[in-house]
Amino acid sequence: MFVVVVGCSGRRLMSSSSSLLLPSLSHPLALSASSSSSFFVPLSRSFHLAAPMCTLWQNWMNHVWNRMDESRLKLIGADRLACEWTLRMGGRVRTMKGSDVHNTKWYTDYNSLPWLQVTTQNQLPDIPIFVTEVDLSDASDTQDPGLLHLERLPKVEIVSLRNCQEITDSALEHLTLCPLLRRVDLVGTGVTEGGVCGFLSKSGVKTVVVDAEVIKSGGHALDPRIIMEQAGEEV
What digits encode the pLDDT tens for the residues 77-92? Predict the structure, then answer.
């Protein structure tokens, strides 16, 4: 079996062999992947969706990709689920095996995650892993509800949401619950000055990088935790 899911623009969202683990989809158009079936969103060359329909489809798909799968969370835990979600959104993630700070690895390909085959048989992975860094730069479909996947991750230190335009102040509430978080990149997002300052007051983050135009108050501009960036350069 081979399954491909493509957005209306023709962008591939995910592909895999039979080991692919799709999120549960409670929708009449839910993907059904039996051993003898494949599911394709029509490509532009063979089928054209009207603009409104395309927008509705893309919005629904974004909602699905950002939604927390509670059953999957119970099976593999928060850190592994955060890995799967980040890669599904087009980002990359760094993990640490157990408590060994020298045993870290970057993952950029969903299909390379080592526990996929094991968990298809409802078996728990043996060695614990922890997410230490999440890079969602330019993952434009990332939305506020998706940050629930990062909430309370015990070892995550760095999160980049650069150019995730749909991210707003609401997303920052999830990050306040990450105890070791020290740096967040919010350049190119929809956050406000009030949201950034509220986030800093609730968390132990050491550095927040934002667009220079977001910070309008002179007092907040002097906060050493806020790095303002303009045209790719720090102000």
Answer: 999 999 999 999 999 9
